[in-house]
Amino acid sequence: QMQLVESGGGLVQAGGSLRLSCANSGRTFSSVTMAWFRQAPGKEREFVGGIRWREGTPDYTYYADSVKGRITISRDNAKGTVYLQMNNLKSEDTAVYSCAATFAPGSIKSMGSYDYWGQGTQVTVSS
Question: Which one of 15, 45, 67, 78 counts the least CB within 10 Å of its CB?
Answer without folding.
Answer: 78
